[in-house]
Design the sequence.
């Protein structure tokens, strides 16, 4: 029997109201009758028949009825002996610089065998609304070391960029590689990121993989891991990304760190959201997901960004698994509307042994133009990317034609375009574990472009062709 509160949650000393009028228990939810003056998102202490205290949060207030979700589940609770105490405060996370290098659970409690985190301050996990006038446009180039990202779908500091994956595709490996390699490029040199990693509903094997990767890459001392495993309570999944983003905002805007927040897998988060919605007997939206899923996801994704006058920033890398590889599924569909682009992993490239299997045609970075060119990367960057896109798109169309008429029916120029696409996939997209600088990425792009005649490089200026092209 335990009466100890989770150490990572800051609770007020005075408890405002207590009730024993629980009328119904449904899944993770408690329905409490005859409540007065309780608030949305207020934290509740639930005391079960055995004296154990569990934390819950107010989901709904309707005149004299309150609905709360219990973070650790409702197993063992009954209607008669269970008590609910409303604390008068929201959920808060204890944060400090000592969090770096630690492994925490979804509530922010240490699970690495180390001591409790000694807090500098306790912050509302829901964050504070940012005045849009205070937001600065993301425009600093981030070098991830991945050519398909740096060269064609450039990431900017303060951007939110999701990775649309499928079952069995190496999205986790890609995220771990980016976390180890990512650098902010600027006047102060190459600055590494502090990494806040939120693992939502992952397996024990995946959790071990991430911890090993961060340690092997030398990034563990600048990383905070929030791990919610698949066998942890589903309600904890709703808490995990909010706790992680609270830590990211603290590091960014209190200690001026460049923070890369990685959220994986947001599909598991949305499934937990659907589970709670069903328990509340809400009218479902598309495919059973709640109609407010868009605004709920936006409340997480919009916590990325930069602020005028602040050195720090929060950049989000969001991983989600597309059910049945369906990019029109509600989760990737809504995520694409909120975020500033997407990286799409391709199963056919994965079958060819190409890593990372990023399909550059449906991938997009809406902030790329602001983060490249001139003194940020190189003056020819945009033109080279456009030319690579044009040739690769043409080759993909030709591949569909070959399936109908055969390659022998193609002209020599068409066959040359097909050969370009094969080399582009094998050498530019496929790079394995290599860490390429932006200079190496652009040089490799020109090496591949020299397979094509200079007169076909219609998207590149003549001055750039004369300087970089070394073809026939």
Sequence:
């Amino acid at each position: 029997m335990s009466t100890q509160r989770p150490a990572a949650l800051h609770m007020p000393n005075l408890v405002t109201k207590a009730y024993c009028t629980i009328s119904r228990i449904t899944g993770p939810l408690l329905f409490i009758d005859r409540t007065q003056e309780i608030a949305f998102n207020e934290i509740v202490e639930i005391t079960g028949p055995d004296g154990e205290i569990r934390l819950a949060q107010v989901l709904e207030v309707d005149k004299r009825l309150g609905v709360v979700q219990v973070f650790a589940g409702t197993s063992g609770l009954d209607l008669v002996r269970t008590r609910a105490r409303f604390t008068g405060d929201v959920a808060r996370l204890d944060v400090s610089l000592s969090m770096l290098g630690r492994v925490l659970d979804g509530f922010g409690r240490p699970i690495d065998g180390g001591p409790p985190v000694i807090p500098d301050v306790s912050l509302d996990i829901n964050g504070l609304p940012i005045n849009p006038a205070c937001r600065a446009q993301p425009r600093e180039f981030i070098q991830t070391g991945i050519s398909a990202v740096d060269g064609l779908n450039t990431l900017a500091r303060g951007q939110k960029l999701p990775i649309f994956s499928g079952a069995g595709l190496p999205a986790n490996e890609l995220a771990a590689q980016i976390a180890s390699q990512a650098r902010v490029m600027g006047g102060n040199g190459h600055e590494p990121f502090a990494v806040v990693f939120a693992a939502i509903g992952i397996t024990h094997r995946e959790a071990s993989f991430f911890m090993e990767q961060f340690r092997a890459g030398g990034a563990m001392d600048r990383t905070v891991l929030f791990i919610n495993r698949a066998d942890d309570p589903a309600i904890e999944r709703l808490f995990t990304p909010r706790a992680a983003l609270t830590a990211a905002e603290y590091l960014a805007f209190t200690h001026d760190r460049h923070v890369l927040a990685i959220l994986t897998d947001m599909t598991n988060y949305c499934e937990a959201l659907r589970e709670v919605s069903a328990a509340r007997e809400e009218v479902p939206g598309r495919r059973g997901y709640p109609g407010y899923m868009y605004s709920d996801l936006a409340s997480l994704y919009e916590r990325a960004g930069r602020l005028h006058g602040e050195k720090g920033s929060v950049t989000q890398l969001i991983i989600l698994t597309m059910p049945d590889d369906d990019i029109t599924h509600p989760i990737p569909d809504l995520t694409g509307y909120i975020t500033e682009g997407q990286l799409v992993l391709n199963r056919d490239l994965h079958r060819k042994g190409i890593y990372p299997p990023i399909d550059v045609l449906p991938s997009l970075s809406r902030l790329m133009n602001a983060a490249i060119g001139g003194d940020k990367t190189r003056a020819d960057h945009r033109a080279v990317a456009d030319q690579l896109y044009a040739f690769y798109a043409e080759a993909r169309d030709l591949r569909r034609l070959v399936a109908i008429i055969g390659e022998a029916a193609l002209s020599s120029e068409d066959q040359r375009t097909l050969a370009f696409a094969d080399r582009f996939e094998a050498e530019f997209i496929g790079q394995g574990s290599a860490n390429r600088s932006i200079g190496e990425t652009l040089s490799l792009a020109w090496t591949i472009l020299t397979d094509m005649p200079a007169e076909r490089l219609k998207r590149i200026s003549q001055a750039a062709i004369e300087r970089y092209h070394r073809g026939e």
